[in-house]
Amino acid sequence: MPAHDPLHHLFSKRRKALLALAYQRCGSHTDAEDFVQECFARAMQLDWGEVEKPDALLATILINLIRDHGRRQQTRQWAEDGSGFETMLAKVSDQSPSPEQRLEHRQALGRVMAAMAELPDKRARIFRMRRFQGMSYAAISSATGLTKKGIEKHIQRALSDLREILRRQDVGKRRYFPDKDS
Fold first, then answer.
1. Is residue 144 classed exposed, middle or buried when 0-12, 13-18 and 19+ CB atoms within 10 A define those classes?
2. Helical packing angle, 54-81 and 83-95, nearest 10°
3. Cα 11 to chain center, whole Å?
4. Which of 104, 102, 100, 77 has its CA nearest to residue 88?
5. How confident is the model over 30-55, as pLDDT tens digits?
6. CB 80 within 8 A of CB 40
7. In the chain, at which end, N or C, are there fewer CB atoms within 10 A of the end residue's CB?
8. CB burial of residue 177 (10 Å; 0-12, 13-18, 19+)
9. pTM, two decimal places
């Protein structure tokens, strides 16, 4: 490639940044060098006439090369010894709650629902809209005609009331609701 070629200039200018990016992603200086070299080889095959952001394109090519390499490595490991697949299955099964945890969660939800039955209707309705249905303050405002401040007050009072009801029921020290509405 001639030294006056604009692509050569871009490679010279961006090489260090691409090496840093590759090293950050793969953790190996040798692999980073290989990825950057392959990135440049692929970039040379492109028509650069219509590229508006060459730096972004080079970074995208590099990141995709590293991802593809990682996928091939993982597939190779799975094919060789099956351990990758077993590890993945173990992670998925570890994320599922145990039968005891599911029962505990179901019982806690039952206690909260029973406590909600003691709330004033309007307060319980607004609390359900926000916490169970995930409605925004704007949507709740449209449905109820209340201001955002009024909705916040009802939710805070509902939380306070529920805490008190659950304390009276002596359900233990576990906190069912955070102090602030999220």
1. middle
2. 100
3. 34
4. 77
5. 999 999 999 988 888 887 777 788 88
6. no
7. C
8. middle
9. 0.43
